[in-house]
């Protein structure tokens, strides 16, 4: 099938590459010329395990191409995916201006050849109706199309794996033709991985996405609430949460306490969902509490550091990990960056290291030092902060770390170390909830 993907970011690129990989003819579009130039060379503009290899492979075999001409791509494709960003507006609502802009461009290219317009961007309930209205309003009278909602559940860091073998595929449709076309598109994945498919209404599909992200964020904030109790009452949050998670109805995933959730999605999506509740006249206190606890995760962590280190002026603090989570170079809403900015206000001397996210961080925090590896950052440090749970930090030689540091103090924002082990080695150790 011929597919056009509009918006070649995390979601658009991964979707496009994976659809090419299963045999479709895919054109990925973007209006960012720098990004397009890289992509045309087979290079990925983002770090995502496995992605660059698949871009290069499918570019070479002719299944994948990149362009900026939406109109001609729409004309030549059967299915058009909208994968543009939906950032938050100042009041928390999702900014749908990019979705609107590309919808208008699509409208101008529609004709009597039937097209399926698929919204994959994360949007509030009823957005597809707006897309449909806009297409009807701006396209020629004989234009034939369906609007589908097909939310994306991939996680950064495992995006390719999540797309090639997803937990579920959700397809919101209101016509048989659209349903059959979408099933045909995903057939190779469904067959190979026995992926459950949920065919639902368009509105339900939109709500499933916001509901899923809010539920996951809720689990993390619950874990951080338990961590607060453990810190005040001297218990171990990891012991408590791992036992709670053994109940199959609860499950162990997304119950790790730490410095809170960040990234380009949870913070923005729960804020947008909170706004939707407000617009619908539904109490949104639950979401407000999720956000409050997430903010407290950072403020309590900073308080711990300040209490322990006292005057920060001139103190050398090593920060390992800048990305919002491991296996990505994405620093959008990374909790550790908020911590760095707070410590900077007290004139701490920050030396940071991250395996992938330093170039991105340098652009927004140029006035700290960056080390070439973890040990260089730690050398002569008066404290060590773990900001991201990269595997390489879990494997650090802690005896060497202790030798290198002036003061062996660890503030472990991701609970990657065993407290009794690090204490035996001679560190003062502060995890979250332990
Ligand atoms: P992104 O910012 O990485 O990519 C969006 C791309 O769209 C950019 O390359 C941008 O240049 C392009 N774009 C914007 N306006 C355009 C226009 N008018 N014409 C052509 N291209 C245009 O965003 P993302 O992380 O891929 O997220 C996209 C959507 O998917 C968002 O709604 C997000 O919430 C959702 N989502 C993201 C993830 C994730 O892990 N990043 C997962 C699931 C869902
Ligand atoms: C999240 C969802 O997991 C995806 O299903 C969804 O598609 C995506 O948002 C989206 O809509 O964009 P992602 O943001 O890539 O994916 O990362 P997660 O693995 O969910 O982690 C989000 C944040 O929560 C990270 O900062 C992570 O460190 C934190 N986290 C996660 C915790 O603090 N504790 C946990 O137990 C799990």
How much of the polypeptide forms β-strand, as a percent range? 5-15%
Unreliable parts: none
* Helix and strand composition category: alpha/beta
Order of strands across the main sheet:
3-2-1-4-5-6
Question: Can you offer a commentary on this structure?
Answer:
Helices cover 47% and strands 14% of the residues. The chain is α/β, with parallel strands linked by helices. It is globular and about 75 Å long. It starts with a strand and ends with a strand. The structure holds nicotinamide-adenine-dinucleotide and uridine-5'-diphosphate-glucuronic acid (UGA).
List descriptors.
434 residues, alpha/beta, six-stranded parallel beta sheet, 14 strands, globular, binds nicotinamide-adenine-dinucleotide, binds uridine-5'-diphosphate-glucuronic acid
How would you summarize this macromolecular structure in one to three sentences?
By secondary structure, the protein is α/β, with parallel strands linked by helices. It has 18 helices and 14 strands.
Write the layout of secondary structure elements.
Elements: E1 2-6, H1 10-21, E2 25-29, H2 33-40, H3 51-60, E3 64-67, H4 70-75, E4 79-82, H5 97-109, E5 115-119, H6 127-138, E6 145-149, H7 159-164, E7 169-172, H8 176-193, E8 197-200, H9 202-233, H10 237-245, H11 266-279, H12 285-309, E9 316-320, H13 335-345, E10 349-353, H14 358-364, E11 369-370, H15 374-378, E12 383-386, H16 391-394, H17 398-404, E13 409-412, H18 419-425, E14 428-430
Parallel strand pairs: 1-2, 1-4, 2-3, 4-5, 5-6, 7-8, 9-10, 9-12, 10-11, 12-13, 13-14
This protein binds nicotinamide-adenine-dinucleotide and uridine-5'-diphosphate-glucuronic acid.
Uridine-5'-diphosphate-glucuronic acid is lined by residues 122, 152-156, 213, 216, 220, 254-256, 258, 260-263, 265-266, 324-325.
């Amino acid at each position: 099938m011929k597919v056009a993907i509009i918006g070649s970011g995390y979601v658009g690129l991964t979707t496009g590459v994976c659809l090419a990989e299963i045999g479709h003819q895919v054109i990925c579009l973007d209006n960012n010329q720098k990004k397009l130039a890289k992509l045309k060379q087979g290079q990925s503009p983002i770090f995502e395990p496995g992605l660059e290899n698949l871009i290069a492979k499918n570019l070479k075999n002719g299944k994948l191409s990149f362009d900026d001409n939406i109109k001609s791509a729409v004309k030549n494709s059967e299915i058009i995916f909208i994968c543009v960003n939906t950032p938050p507006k100042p009041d928390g609502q999702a900014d749908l201006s990019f979705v609107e802009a590309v919808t208008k461009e699509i409208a101008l290219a529609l004709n009597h050849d039937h097209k399926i317009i698929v919204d994959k961007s994360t949007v509030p309930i009823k957005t597809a109706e707006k897309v449909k209205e806009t297409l009807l309003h701006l396209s020629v009278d004989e234009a034939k199309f369906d609007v589908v909602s097909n939310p994306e559940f991939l996680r950064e860091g495992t995006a390719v794996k999540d797309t090639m073998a997803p937990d579920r595929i959700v397809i919101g449709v209101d016509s048989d033709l659209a349903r059959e076309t979408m099933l045909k598109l995903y057939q190779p994945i469904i067959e190979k991985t026995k992926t459950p498919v949920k065919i639902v209404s368009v509105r339900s599909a939109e709500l499933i996405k916001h509901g899923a992200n809010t539920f996951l964020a809720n689990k993390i904030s619950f874990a951080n609430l338990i961590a607060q109790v453990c810190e005040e009452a001297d218990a171990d949050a990891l012991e408590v949460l791992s036992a709670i998670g053994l109940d199959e109805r609860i499950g162990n995933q997304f119950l790790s306490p730490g410095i809170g959730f960040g990234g380009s999605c949870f913070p923005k999506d729960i804020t947008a969902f909170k706004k939707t509740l407000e617009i619908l006249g539904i109490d949104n206190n639950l979401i407000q509490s999720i956000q409050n606890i997430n903010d407290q995760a950072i403020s309590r962590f900073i308080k711990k550091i300040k209490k322990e280190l006292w005057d920060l002026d001139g103190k050398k603090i090593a920060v390992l990990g800048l990305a919002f989570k491991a296996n990505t170079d994405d620093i959008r809403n990374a909790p550790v960056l908020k911590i760095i900015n707070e410590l900077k206000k007290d004139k701490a001397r920050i030396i940071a290291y991250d395996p992938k996210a330093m170039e991105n961080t340098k652009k927004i925090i140029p006035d700290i030092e960056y080390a070439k590896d973890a040990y260089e950052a730690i050398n002569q440090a008066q404290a060590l902060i773990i900001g991201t749970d990269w595997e390489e930090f879990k494997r650090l030689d802690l005896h060497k770390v202790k030798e290198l540091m002036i003061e062996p103090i660890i503030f472990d924002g991701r609970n990657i170390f065993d407290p009794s082990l690090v204490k035996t080695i001679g560190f003062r150790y502060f995890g979250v909830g332990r």
